[in-house]
Amino acid sequence: MAASLVGGAEATITLNTQFGTAFDSSGQPVPAGTLYALVIDTNLSDTFAGGFGLQESLGKPGADAVFTPGQTISLGGNLSGDTIFYLGAFDGAAEGITAETIQLTVGVNGVATIRNFAIYWFPGATLSSANSATIGTQVGGMHAFSELGTGLESMTIPSDGSLVNIGAATLAGGGTTPPSRFTAVDLVPEPSTAFLGILGVFGLLRRRR
Prior knowledge:
By secondary structure, this protein is mainly beta. The chain has helices at residues 60-66, 191-208; strands at residues 2-6, 12-16, 34-40, 47-48, 52-53, 72-74, 78-79, 82-89, 102-105, 115-126, 132-134, 138-142, 156-157, 164-165, 185-186. The longest helix has 18 residues, at 191-208. It is globular and about 45 Å long. This is PEP-CTERM protein-sorting domain-containing protein.
């Protein structure tokens, strides 16, 4: 993924994305059309939605703290102090994820300079609207982390018009990023939802008797 900033009253950002293959929680490549979201670090905490920080891959406890199965996410929406500034769909799979070239404007949907951003993908979900989408039961996420040799450069929107190369691939794809960082996790339903599900099972059992 490459990003450039053109100066001016309404600065324009261009993102050209290229990541290695993303997988669902069972280790299968996600198909073309899979929903993804770009999220910017609005509150400057260096920690993204769900405790997804600069030094961490997406963890199940963090994912469950922010995302729930069937949740609707919206362009410009808030995620634990961060902002969804783009919703899109991958146009490739297996050979590597290639998203479309994205034109953004500073100040719109939380886009700001010198801010880190992350990518989330949602296996099983597709983009039905440019402004909102419903996720499934899985989520994967990735952000740049500072150790050298990881194969993922800084995902930071620049302020001086310089190019920032963004991309990552596993060893199989010619990169050095651990495959686990490309693998989604299963979301656990909220306790209330799970409890209602259990009640439903008991109801079916009683009805059968």
